[in-house]
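[SOLVED] Need 3D model of a three-part complex

Original post:
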Amino acid sequence: MFDFLDGYDLLGAFWVTVQLTVYSALGSLIWGTLLAGMKVSPVPLMRGFATGYVNVVRNIPLTVIILFASLGLFSTLGVKLGADGFTGINFRLAVLALSSYTAAFVCEALRSGINTVPVGQAEAARALGLSFTQVLRLIILPQAFRSVVNPLSNVLIALTKNTTVASAIGVAEASYLMKKMIENEAQLLLISAVFAFGFIVLTLPTGLILGWVSKKVAVKR
Amino acid sequence: MTSVLYDAQGPRAKRRNVLYTVLFVLGAAAVVWWVYDGLASKHQLDWIKWKPFLTSSQPWDTYIWPGLQNTLKAAFFALIIALPLGALFGIGRLSDHRWMRAPSGVVVEFFRAIPVLILMLIANQAYFEYTDLAPDTRLLYAVITGLVLYNASVLAEIVRAGILTLPSGQTDAAKAIGMRKGQTMVFVLLPQAVTAMLPAIVSQIVVIVKDTALGGAVLSFPELLASVRPMAANYGANTIACFTIIAVLYMALNFALTSFASWLERRLRRAKKSTGAVVGTGPGGDLETIGAPSLNIDDGRAT
Amino acid sequence: MQLRKVTAASAAVLALALTATACGSDDKKDDASGSSGGKKISIGIKIDQPGIGLKTPDGKFTGFDVDVATYVAKELGYDAKDINFKETKSADRETSIERGDVKFIAASYSINDERLQKVDFAGPYLLAHQDILVRADDNSIKAPEDLNNKKLCSVTGSTSAQNVHDKLAPKADLQEYGGYSECLTGLENEAVDALTTDDSILAGYASQDANKGKFKLAGFKMTNENYGIGLKKGDADLKKKINDALTKMVSDGSWEKAVKANFGPANYKNEPAPKIGNVVK
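Solution:
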């Protein structure tokens, strides 16, 4: 029944999916944290930028963002991100696009996490003479992160599945292989089922583990 | 604006802010110029690439408007079905009874884990096997089903988190005046949780709108993003122009949605001053205070 | 209570909307009953390939496949106005036929062994070849072997892309996009050197007003693509009728006329009309 799998590198394709997910998760965590910082910062322009960025990016379909990265950044503006050959360029562009997109959601999640930190914490920190970046870095963000593990795990699961969009610019991840197999094998449903299973294997543990972590680190108030 | 995160600014801090602002504006201007110059030098801003959208109503009538209608239709139905279903599963996961908690948990975790695209494919096949819907209607139903299954499970998580953030005193008080569990849920917890959850729900609405595009990617469901392909094929591969127009449309549509939702949220908030859970801000708003425990779940799923 | 009002309002909206679609779906049933032998017929085509199958801004469909489909439908007893053209994506073609969503498909659909296991083909009605499209001022690619150190573009997962990988130019750097338009943008911006797929499709793109003089076909004929009309497996009656229609189309000159009308402006040198059942390997 599964002989249609012969000759396809299923594991290799899912490995690319995993790599895309990991790099983009790191990228979006960094950029999203910076955005959240900007959003609560004393400089009005930065606040405006962060708000505008989040509103624009999360309202556009990811496919369009990834295509803009390839057609606009690479094809028109010649940005190659230091890679040679399309495999490398496309992978890096996909990570860039996925990070930029997911960062908007990380920022929003973090901001709501910042909201859960009691006012007294910030007031006490300021009373000690800490500057804005110190307050944020030492007092607020560590507590905020602990309260948003669950939302962030949702974002991570979504990101894992979002990597499928990278096939729009030819990154050879899982859904790229799926398209190829559907074209060759004409086994639409069976192939979809195999790939659905693959994604369950990837995302289900993420959800369960992070759910457990979230309970572990939650700040009891 | 004052914030509890930093002190009122003195003259030095103000000067520094001005400096940051100037640097920021200069940097932004440089980026804009670089993009503009790049696009222009590769002829992507040529009039012939943009003319169709600006001088004629044909592309709008033939490609964009029908696509937009389909997107709206699918998103609307997906939303109104997924919301109650999500609430049901969310409450189900909080139930005291194992036989309710376990299946709800399994359903939520399962449908959250599968890409929506594959859910749509499977739904399409299932409708074909077990119903005799006309092909066009079946596609719409399949897209809606895929969206509902996924988003209901995400909404279930939002509802559950919303109820969990409510102070436990609410439940205790309800118990003290002799309310049953169902009554507590319906009259005490859910109304408060809904208000607290609105920003997260709004994010999810935006996700639903964008996810309709998945129906176009595989099922040939003629939605907004899918309208780019014939359009670009007609106007000589002006892909950058086409995608820009579509991106602006999505932005306008979602912005209208989120604005409406935050208006709704403000009204609801005003009507119930007494909620324990306070969400800092609506989507796109600025942080005003660091408040009591609150919640705002976002989910990045979309295409 | 505020919440109750909102709930009531949404319930009303829901009820309204449900009735609205209920009516809507009734209408659609009439439209799409081609498969059940009513007066209408649903035909699968491409809507994004100039010269082959294209949805034009006035809402009509043009292209060689569309002309062939219209002619065949006429021979089967359907007027042009009774035809319901539907987009069938490449990945969706076999399932659309199996489900009966469309009666038959004319969508640059090459006959091959894998597909023959799922569907039957009438025809072929056109012999096309995989070819490359390059910038008009680019003379560096003189033979298919020259592609090996070039940047190529094609559609994700398509047979053309796999051919390049497996046989034609294994060392070429291959960019894959969801559609030909994106590739063309890359070609125009010099991010890729050549776009490869069937010459019939490339010709259509090259001859568009916005692209006039920018691109040219290399004329390599790297593979043989026998376009056939896909139909439900085992429907010998329909296959015979379509084959008869195609034979008639060639003999009464309509085939030549359709070729001239669709490929003429592109200056595309087509192969002569193929014999029915004669699949060129």
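Edit: Chain B has one domain: 47-271.
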